[in-house]
Structure formats: C-alpha cells, structure tokens
Amino acid sequence: MSASCITDDERWMARALRLAARGAGYVEPNPMVGCVLVRGGRLLAEGYHRRYGGPHAEMDALQRCTCSPKGATAYVTLEPCCHMGKTGPCTEALISAGIARVVVALRDPFPAVAGKGLRRLRRAGMRVDVGAGAADAARLAAPYLKLCRTGQPWVIAKWAQSLDGRIATRTGQSQWISGPSSRHFVHRLRGRVDAIVVGIGTVLADDPLLTCRARRPRRIPTRVVLDSHLRLPRNCRLWRTARQAPLLVVTTHDAIRRRHSLGQITAAGAEVLALRTKQGRTDVRLLLAELGRRRMTNVLVEGGAEVLGAFADHRAIDEAFVFVTPRIIGGRTAPAAIGGRGPSTLTELSALHDTVCRRIGTDWLFHARWAD
Known about the structure:
Elements: H1 8-20, E1 34-39, E2 42-48, H2 57-64, E3 73-78, H3 90-96, E4 101-106, H4 116-123, E5 127-130, H5 134-140, H6 142-150, E6 154-162, H7 180-190, E7 195-199, H8 200-206, E8 222-226, H9 237-240, E9 247-251, H10 253-258, H11 262-267, E10 271-274, E11 277-278, E12 281-282, H12 284-293, E13 298-303, H13 305-313, E14 319-325, E15 352-360, E16 363-370
Parallel strand pairs: 3-4, 4-5, 6-13, 6-14, 7-8, 7-13, 8-9, 9-10
Antiparallel strand pairs: 1-2, 1-3, 11-12, 14-16, 15-16
C-alpha cells in the first residue's frame, strides 16, 4: 500500500503497533499492546504495556499525557479490558479521561473481555471503530491469540544448517555450523521465550547449556529436555546448572518406575514430568498442552532432527528461524534438519507465509511462519 493510500487511523495505529512490540518478552502471558492519544491530528501522548503486572498501554499513555486528553482519540492495538485484574479496567480510565473516540485494531478473545470492553465504551457514549491495522495487530499478537484459542503456546523452530541441508557431519559434529552473528541472534531470541526444547540426543552429543547469554535477557527460559528413558547424564551442564536456570525433564511413567536417577535429578533442582508417549516418543500435543497450562506463550524448539521432525509431523510449528551457512557438508549419513515421518506427497507440504531472507554475518537467515 502506498503512503498516499494510508488513512490517518492506519498511520496512528501503525505507531501504536510499533510501541506494542517493545513489550515482547516482558509482558507474557499478557498480550503486547500499544496506545496513542491524538487530538486534532496532533500526538498528545503514547504508551505501551511495559511489563507483566504493570500498567496497561492505555493507562501508560494517559499517565504520560501532560495536558487534558478530553475529546481525544485513543488508538489501541487490542480491545481495552473491562475487568479488574492486576490493574484496573482500562475502559473506565478512558471514560474518566473524557476520550471521545477509541480506534481498536483487534477484539480481545480473552473471556473476561471478548467484546465487553467495546460495549462498555459505546454505552458511555464513545465512538468505537474496530479494524484499523487488524492484520498487523493479529501478526503481532499471534502467540497470545493462539494461547487464548487453543491453550497451547506459540512454537518457534530454530536450526542451523549447511547449504545442502545438513545440521551435523556424519560423525555428529555440529558446533559450530553457524557464525558468531547468528549465535548472538539466537541468544537474543532465547531471551524472550518461556521455554527451550531439545531432545536427549542433542544433550548427549553437544552438552548444551541452553541459557540466554544476551546482555539484557527479557526472560529466563525453562530448559526442557525430552528424555523418554531418563538418560540425562549427571555430569552434563544442564544437570549442573539446574538451580541457576529452570530445568524440566520430560519422560515417561515407565522410565520413572525403572530408573533410580529420579531422586538425583530432582535433588539437583530439576523438575521431572511424566507424559504418555506416542510410538515410544513424547506426545507433542500433550507436551504443548502442559506448557500452555503453565501459561507459557512462546516456546523455542532447537532440536535435534527427530524432535523437530516430531513437531513438524504434528503440524505444531508456527514460526521458524533457519540459519544457512554457505558451506557444503555432504555425507549419506549426515543428519538433515527435519527428521520424523514427513509427508508422502508434495501436496501435503505446509504452506509458509511472511517469508523473509536476510544476511546475518557470514550466514543467511530465513524466517517464515506456517499458514493456519
């Protein structure tokens, strides 16, 4: 859309959406929300939801307004709340401030809101318009919307591969396929998610730490290891750091009955969760339901190939970051990025959208979302 075709409502809403995005990693499981107050084409104040439990975007904007906002238009990326939670109802704050019009990008599906906020504003005599910037707002709020709709977190897959699609050599060596810039990007990504998921094979091969080494991480993710036979080594770095960063070992009821290491794992500070299996492996849907029950909003799946394949087979991946190094590994037995069963025909392939490719250091980063 050309700049001349953008309406004032879309322009101000785009500004509110840019503000909302600043809350990524700070506000979950709440949604990212931005608010802009405008009167007579002039910006009065703006705000966004900055941290979980803190003032909502509308409150933040009103508190930052240095003049009376009476008669102004409020541009809000998500329907204002109308219930008492950790903060007061935003609808009442807008009404008390004398706001004349509210432009909302999306209705909030959360049951305590779900259209009630819009009705409250209209009953107070405000003009309420819905839909400006809706597509961009839905893209930004996708993890929150999925958690509300399905009770499951947003799943982000990440892997690094060679130009010929290998994630390790035939002997299993994988560190480091990607360059320093890509690894720095991954640490920033880790710093805004609730959990990082890997399989026990990755732990045995690479002994990863799975922490965020970004300078200012927004969250401390839970390290989740899928370990059906409780093979987690006592000398691995995950075990040794279980008291510094949360560690969740997902296993089976059979493994707990057969193994004697359960007490040692929990004594080290880790949590052990037993789930039913599907064909001998952790049931991805049960895992996601459990993580959703814990109100995790964004989950990063880092591998290995069989774990990524299990999520792909269940069509459980929502977004992917793929780092491609311009080198060839080769080898008949060198593992590919995605294992699992895979589709039998090309017509079964999942559609991707919002696909972007850009250079990152010595690598190329492909970013895409799966179509619903």
